[in-house]
Write a structure and sequence with these properties.
Blueprint (H helix, E strand, L loop, with lengths): L1 H9 L7 H13 L1 H8 L8 E5 L5 H15 L17 E6 L2 H10 L7 E6 L12 E5 L7 H14 L5 E7 L4 H19 L10 H10 L2 E7 L8 E8 L1
Parallel strand pairs: 1-2, 1-4, 2-3, 4-5
Antiparallel strand pairs: 5-7, 6-7
Helix pairs in contact: 1-2, 1-4
């Protein structure tokens, strides 16, 4: 079933070219967060998603393919133990890399039944609208401390009291795994921007304190199984 879900999700990227398609297959297969979002029902029934630092929109493809598999309703299509995936009404992604934006827009140029938008812009500045869930995966460490605080304050202001934030971060106390994660992220940033960029990292408890200061309560769970990284998913709701 998992293999079929990866194939269905990555198929969105056929119109965007071989690179986009192959990247989607590799990332969806290797990143444990995608599986956890479905298997644990982390997004619940939320329908209006804001994806900050969305890349080529993989989360949208994943959720749309999941909904299609769930509707088919066979055990081979959807595990009986998994909760229903969200039925998206709108997806807004924000991405600063223009190449990623173009790939996402090509992938979803056909009508998917969802109000789909990928904005080319900086997550510090764009209009967040009124989502009922916000996802920020491996993004905030590219911003300075004050910008991290500002983004989370804006997310809290955009969400309703029942809204949800899923935020994956690295733990600066993660030892060698964290050092590897940091080196990897700096390399990715160099490949995208053509320049080395400093990363603004925090200990896990400091990330939690940051969320509390922005008006959230959060619980943490490891989110790097099967990878050499040391990442944690913070599931946050309004305090």
């Amino acid at each position: 079933m998992f293999t079929a879900l990866i194939a269905g999700s990555s198929a969105f990227y056929r119109p965007a070219g071989q690179f986009a398609w192959r990247f989607a297959r590799a990332k969806l297969a290797g990143d444990p967060a995608f599986r956890a979002i479905l298997a644990q029902g982390l997004l619940g029934e939320r329908k209006r998603l804001l994806d900050l630092g969305c890349g080529q929109g993989l989360l949208a493809a994943w959720l749309l393919a999941a909904r299609s598999a769930f509707v088919r309703g066979t055990p081979r299509a959807w595990p009986a133990a998994w909760p229903a995936p969200p039925q998206l009404k709108s997806y807004v992604g924000v991405e600063i890399n223009p190449h990623e934006v173009r790939r996402a827009r090509r992938a979803f140029a056909a009508d998917s039944g969802v109000d789909f938008k990928v904005l080319h812009g900086d997550i510090r500045d764009v209009d967040y609208g009124a989502p009922d869930a916000v996802v920020i995966m491996d993004v905030l460490h590219y911003l300075d401390y004050s910008s991290q605080e500002r983004v989370l304050a804006r997310v809290r202001a955009a969400l309703s009291p029942e809204g949800l934030l899923l935020m994956r971060v690295g733990n600066a106390e993660g030892g060698l795994g964290f050092a590897f994660s940091k080196a990897f992220d700096r390399t990715v940033a160099f490949m995208r921007r053509g320049a080395w960029r400093p990363l603004t990292t925090r200990r896990l408890e400091d990330w939690r304190s940051l969320l509390i200061g922005a008006g959230f309560r959060a619980h943490a769970q490891p989110m790097s199984a099967g990878t050499p990284f040391v990442n944690t998913l913070l599931v946050a709701r309004a305090a």
